[in-house]
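Model it.
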Amino acid sequence: VYILQKESILEHTHTYKFTLPCLTFLYFLLVSQPHAKYIVENLIVAADPDVTKEHLSLEHVNLSNLHLVKELCHALACNTTTLKEIRVENACLTLAGATMLLDAMGTQEKLKVVSLAGNDISDEDSLQLTEHFPRGAKIEGLSGTETLSIINDLVANKLMELKMGKQTEVPVPVMRKIVSSIASSASLRKIIVTYQHLTDDLGVELVHSAKHLRNLSMLSLSHNKLTNKTVYAIVEAFTDHKHLRTIDLSHNKLRDDSGKVLGTLIQSQTPLRVLNLSHNLLQDNGSRGLAEALKRDNTLEELSLAQNKYITYMGIRFLAEGLRENRGLRVLRFEQKCLLILLN
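Modeled.
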């Protein structure tokens, strides 16, 4: 306290209450940067459990020294019930320092916002930090924050719909992290991952991560680069699933075998209502496999085979035979250069 008075930081010592972790942190701070006087009051607010302020802001403070970060973590541990927002911006935080700090924030009961903008944290570092995000807090200031927050929400079981489309193209390393995080979620009802250039390695991994989701009702993986391999995984994972009603695999690279194996899924106990296979590479045998399924199923209501340019009139004939014995299908979309079939 004498040092603080000498530096003209404190005018009246009796108006301030210090905990030991706070004093240790202030000592490191004064030794390393004696001109950072304006942040002291906020540090006291963070460290003193009797103070009920909700915000802590540390800006333009050099926290490259891990000893200093460690003392700040001790100070945060003294107040776990009031802080709602913590901003540590332009503070020279490294990956190691940010990891320590985020772990310490995990004890905050009411924390809603954490900002780490302007620190020495790369895109790869940001991905590693996702495992340390405080549960339930919105993370700001990191590269790809919106996408990274998806991982946090999945682990915290806060997402009912996972949606990534044309406007949010996700880097492959981040996508891998998201896919693996699906396995930690029990709340998802819909998975919509489109326009992400997914190949079979990620597609199969996604399906394996999602197969435990008992309440999954929609799986949309359109506009990617998936082939039959991912379809095999889907059929294996979701045959006799109780709630899956929509599968959209349009605009991929599916071939004949996809039609055959999806026919087995249609005939299973899975209550599939909508199947979209438009803009793929199906041929007549794929059409035949689907037609055979239609003969035995009355659950499917909508089937789209539009712009599968290798299906000939023979494939159309197979479908017609299947429709004669089907009583459930309401919409069939089959559009080629010279032929449009719309059954409604």
